[in-house]
Amino acid sequence: HGDVRVAVRPAEAQFSQLACMKLGLPPESLLQLCVSAGCKAIPPLLKYISIRTDADNNVLEEEQLPVEVPLGKDFVFQSVFVCPITREQCTVENPPTMLPCGHAISHAAVASLTSSRDRFKCPYCPSECHLRDCVTLKL
After folding, report:
1. Which of 18, 83, 72, 11 is nearest to 41 (CA)?
2. Whole-prediction pTM value?
3. For 89, phi and psi rounded to 5 degrees?
């Protein structure tokens, strides 16, 4: 059985890489991805700290980075959203839609809920929604 596992490893790695690429996910672990992004952020932050004159404020206490950190195209991923109503992955043709209550469903699900009217009830909470208040999200 050991020989079979050794023979299968390259196919397993290739399958994993192709699956991640198809889903728009990074092929390496998320921890490795976070560490890599953090390493890219260190030089701009060190430069910012070295020229900053206000010593009372600590960069680590701020809620967001005080400088732009270009991470490059290796850190851009396609969003994946599966509609909880239709149970289908949203696409550019059928994008996710944010309801006024904060829940998100596909455009097709909103269309089925509003077939003859502009008002509908959120399928997940008791909120009454108006079609004009829904926001189409970009993938």
Report:
1. 72
2. 0.47
3. -70, 135
